[in-house]
Specification:
With 131 residues, this protein is an all-alpha fold. It is built from 7 helices and no strands.
Length: 131
């Protein structure tokens, strides 16, 4: 998997994981378009997220997407996978926890990451326009 694909998954997975009330979609709605995604499934999900927002829906979870458009049902397992395993905060916590655990058993000062969702959005745009 390329870095571009990873970042695409992180962006879509984070948009689909707004259970905590964070509005990550607002970080990318004005600078990312659906045609920037190389994965057709991610493009379809992003298009649906745009459509849902334009219709006034604030929640964009896999359940909400399928409830809004039952034609998206075939993508439900994929959307669930993205929202769980590619959510940027869970990736950040996992990385920082591994740094901490490694430091416990080695003479090592952990290097925690302070990456934000906006950092992923900016990197994605850089990758798209440099291709």
């Amino acid at each position: 998997m390329t870095r571009r694909q990873e970042i695409e998954n992180i962006i879509i997975g984070t948009i689909l994981n707004n259970y905590c009330g964070e509005d990550y979609f607002s970080d990318c709605k004005s600078c990312i378009t659906a045609n920037m995604f190389s994965d057709e499934r991610n493009r379809m999900i992003y298009n649906k997220a745009i459509e849902m927002r334009n219709a006034g829906h604030l929640n964009i979870t896999p359940f909400d997407v399928v409830k809004y458009d039952t034609a998206m049902f075939e993508l439900a397992p994929y959307m669930c996978e993205l929202s769980v395993y590619w959510y940027f905060l869970s990736k950040k916590v996992d990385y920082n926890e591994r740094q901490w655990l490694w430091s416990l058993s080695h003479d090592y000062k952990p290097r925690y990451t302070e990456v934000t969702f906006s950092d992923y959005v900016n990197r994605f745009i850089q990758i798209v326009f440099s291709s």
